[in-house]
Amino acid sequence: MDATLPGDLFGNGVIAAPMAGGPSRPQLAEAVGRAGGLGFLGGGLKTPQALTAELDTMGTARPFGVNLFVPSAGEIDRDAVLAYRERLLPEAAALGAEVPEPRWADDDAYPAKLDLLLDRTPAVVSFTFGTPRWDAVSALQSAGAFVLQTVTCPEEAAMAAELGVNALVVQHPDAGGHSGAFLGLPPFAGTLPELVAQVRDAVALPLVAAGGVGTPDDAAAARSAGASAVQLGTAFLRTPEAGSNPVHREALASNDFTRTAPTRSFSGKWARGLENDFMRRFADAPAAYPVVHHLTAPMRAASVKAGSPHRTSLWAGTAWREALEEPAAAVVARFAA
C-alpha cells in the first residue's frame, strides 16, 4: 500500500484532533477544513442524537472526520470504584454537586453511533481506545469512508494493520487528553519521531503523528521520520472556534500551572492534563473507565461553573505553552506541510 495520505481528504497535512467533551465542535471542524486541513467531530461521550445534530450542521464544502471510542470489555474492580466514590463525596459537596451511583454498564452507545456513520458516512472515520471489528472497517470503507486507527506502539500498529484500516494515528504519550493505548503496554519512552519511525518500520500504512507537536519544527521532525500528516489537539484549544470552556482556556494561558501529567483521577483512564490539586490528591484513582468519568462529571461541571480550575480536568499536551489565542486558520497555516 502506498504510505501516503490522499490529498483530497487530508489537504495540507494538518488534522484537528477529535477532542470529546466539547472542544471539537462543528465550528472548529469547519474552520480547519476551510483553511485546508481536516477537521474532526468527537463522537465519544455523545448520544447518537447529539452526534446526528452535529452532522446536520456540517457543510459539504470540505471533507471532515468523526471519531468513535471503542468500548473496552475489561474487568472493573467494583469495590475500588465504590471506595473512590466515597472519597469524592466531600469534593463534590464543596461545590454543591452530587456524585451519582456508578453506571457499571456503558458502551458509549457505540453500536448505534457506528450504525449512524454507516448511514451518514463522513469522509474519514477514526477509532480510539480499541480496535473495531474487521467487518465494521470493511463496511465503512464500502460506504466511502477512509478509516483511521489510533495506536501508541508498533504492536498496536500491527494489530490495526491486520484489520485493513487505511492509515494509523501514531499517538505519543506527550499528547493531551486520553491515551488511545489498548494493549496495556508501558508508554513509549522515546520521542515522537522515534515512535513514528518504529511504527513505519512495522507496517506499510500511511501515518499521522500526534502528541506534543507544539511548533512547526516539531511537525517537520515528525514528517521527516515518516509521518504524512500531523494531528494537533492542544494547539486548537484556545482558538475562538473551539468549544473549550472558559476555565480551561484561562488555565492554558495562566502561569499558575507548571507541568502536565497523566492521571486517572477524572475518568478512570490515563489522560494528560495540566496538573492541579485534585490530580495530586487523587493520583491513586482506580482503572475504571468510563465509570469514574460519570462519577466526577457533576463535580467537574460545577467547578467550571464556579470558575475554578481545581476540581475539573484541564486536558493538555506537553507543548501547551505553545498554544496561542488565535483563529484556527492561523494554527493550520503555521503547521501546514
Describe the 3D structure:
With 337 residues, the protein is of the alpha/beta class. The protein folds into two domains: 7-71 and 107-241 and 323-335, TIM Barrel; 75-105 and 258-313, no CATH class. It has 13 helices and eleven strands. The strands form two sheets. It has an eight-stranded parallel β-sheet with strand order 1-9-8-6-5-4-3-2. It has a three-stranded antiparallel β-sheet with strand order 7-11-10, with no helix packed on it.
Number of helical regions: 13
- The domain tally reads 2
Number of strand segments: 11
- Please give the CATH architecture of the largest domain: Alpha-Beta Barrel
- Provide mean pLDDT, rounded: 97
Radius of gyration: 19 Å
Q: Tell me, what's the shape?
A: globular
Reported by name, the CATH topology of the largest domain is: TIM Barrel
Q: Residue share in helices?
A: 25-40%
